[in-house]
Amino acid sequence: MVQDQLRERYGDEVADEFDASVDAMPLISWAAYGYRVRKGEKALKSITYVEVKNEKDEVIKKIKRTVNLFHRRQVQKAI
């Protein structure tokens, strides 16, 4: 999903080199590393599932959540 959005915005080279573990993070994570999102950039949309567990630590349901991510090309070091 994110890789398709990258391909559309930045081309095949960026999409093919995409590594989800280091190249895309939510805004708050980039801020923690001292980066800020460049003016005019729009978030990449992704989906994750949050597990709800009971007292016995058993998964009773999964909730679908939309996550807004930013690629490393969309951020710059904060001043």
Features:
alpha+beta, 5 strands, three-stranded antiparallel beta sheet, 30% helix, 79 residues
Order of helices and strands: HHHEHEEEE
- What is the spatial order of strands in the main beta sheet? 1-4-3
- Tally of contiguous helical segments: 4
Compute the separation of the termini in Å.
32 Å
Q: Into which percentage range does the β-strand content fall? A: 35-45%
Radius of gyration: 15 Å
Short description:
With 79 residues, this protein is of the alpha+beta class. The protein has 4 helices and 5 strands. The radius of gyration is 15 Å and the shape is globular.
Walk me through the structure:
The protein is α+β, with helices and mostly antiparallel strands. The protein contains four helices and five strands. The chain is globular and about 45 Å long.
Strand and helix map with partners:
Layout: H1 2-10, H2 12-16, H3 20-23, E1 24-25, H4 27-32, E2 35-37, E3 44-53, E4 59-71, E5 75-77
Antiparallel strand pairs: 1-4, 2-5, 3-4
